[in-house]
# Entry
Amino acid sequence: MKVFITGGGGFLGYRLALRLLERKTLAGPDGKPASISRIKLFDAAFPPDPDPRLECVKGDIAEPAAIAAAMDADTASVFHLAAVVSAGAEADFDLGYRVNLEGTRNLLESCRKLKAPPHLVYASSLAVFGGKLPPVVDDSITPNPQTSYGTQKVIGEYLVNDYSRKGFLDGRSLRLPTIVVRPGKPNLASTSFASGMFREPLNGVVCEVPVGDSTELWILSPRQVIESFVHAHDLPASAWGTNRSINLPGITVSVKQGVDALRRIAGDKVAARIRREPDALIVRIVDGWPQRIEARRAHALGFRPETEVRCRRRAPLGDPRVYELRGTQLCLRRSEAARVLVELA
# Structure
């Protein structure tokens, strides 16, 4: 089985590829586990020294010829994670539509030309919702995006539905919560601060938070979203019916809860590195998204809610500090040196 991942050079795309290398199988066309023979990553850039078992192809997803040349004719599974993120798509209207809409259509057209209809998992977003929302969003709420990014994502969902209806592919779209904690530098996502408010202060760097303390976010850990991608892929087409889009489970955390927890486990000096720098655009975008979701359909399909979102600080061997986000509490756990995990989850 050959696997193709767009956005494969990004944090989630590359992490997904490593998980598939570890897993070694995905559900094949007959629903039975099939061995993965090749994983190809497509992106504009890649991390240094990628795993040699992965094939990395640089290209522009908005160029149809680039996708067609990169994708093998017998590709069986496609994960579409490439995107210009929320605030970036809002700031650059043309770029957002070029990548998020034209790029998605290019990919679907390439899938349509494969030897057999592939399984396709599309990374959508809770940004498809907007306007006046109830306190808890459930599966009955119709998408009403109030940003260019959300509009592009919901159009992508409808395209995945239609291409699936026509039998060109077997698609499924996952509406991702805010992913916490991402490593590396801040990006152009409207909720980039949700990772930065933990990551930066713990690494001695100031983090500017553009929203108020009462702002609440629907979040999910990187580990759990990767497992959700794999689970979505392996579900049979019959499980999805005519609606190929789903709201992923998560947990609600406020900015104040995060800051208080950080202060509790790391002290006032570290918490003081969080500074309030209000940004009206970010406030408008984030306040328009769901803060709580009742994901009954996802639960019924076997998607699991977050039971432990871990925020682990990179530390040298012997450092007993391990930071974890359990539910809505960030707590410090004393651990034996041999058990210290050094990667930021």
Residues 314 and 342 are 4 Å apart (CA to CA). The chain has eleven helices and 18 strands.
